[in-house]
Design goal:
Elements lengths: L8 H6 L1 E4 L7 E6 L15 E4 L11 H16 L4 E8 L6 E8 L3 H10 L4 E5 L4 E5 L5 E8 L7
Antiparallel strand pairs: 1-2, 1-4, 2-8, 3-5, 3-6, 4-5, 6-7, 7-8
Length: about 160
Amino acid sequence: MLIAPGDPWEGYARTIVEVVRAGGRNLVVRAAPRGEVGAWPWVRPGPVHVLTAWDPGGERPGEEENRRRHAALEADLRHLAGQQWPAFGVDPVTGHREEGVAVCGVPTAEVVLLGGRYRQDAVFVWTPGEWTILACTGGRRMPFGWSLEPPEPDG
């Protein structure tokens, strides 16, 4: 699916997400052409959802407010998620960066509702077969393949 220039999902499609795993190597995932996927790095088949409370829509409330919203999101997820990990997303073209959280064990519908509650446009849904951008309202869905960047060597 092509994205029109200026569509906010253009940045979502470019976003590189780093999931910070305690005691293991961090995972750096990005969209790839449909049908192309890497070796699934998780014990369970997923899905793993990535969401944020930062910079909803066109708002840019600043770091202090974003951190407050992020803490509230993490608290909400503690009641829902089987596991959660810090995640960071960056658009390599604009440099826009947001903190977020990766979770498993939460139904996609609940993740979408929670993202909407924090006024987010979309969440990422990562499965062995797809990296999907999923709208929090309106049902828009954009599936991709995915790839992992090679891990940094231990040093």
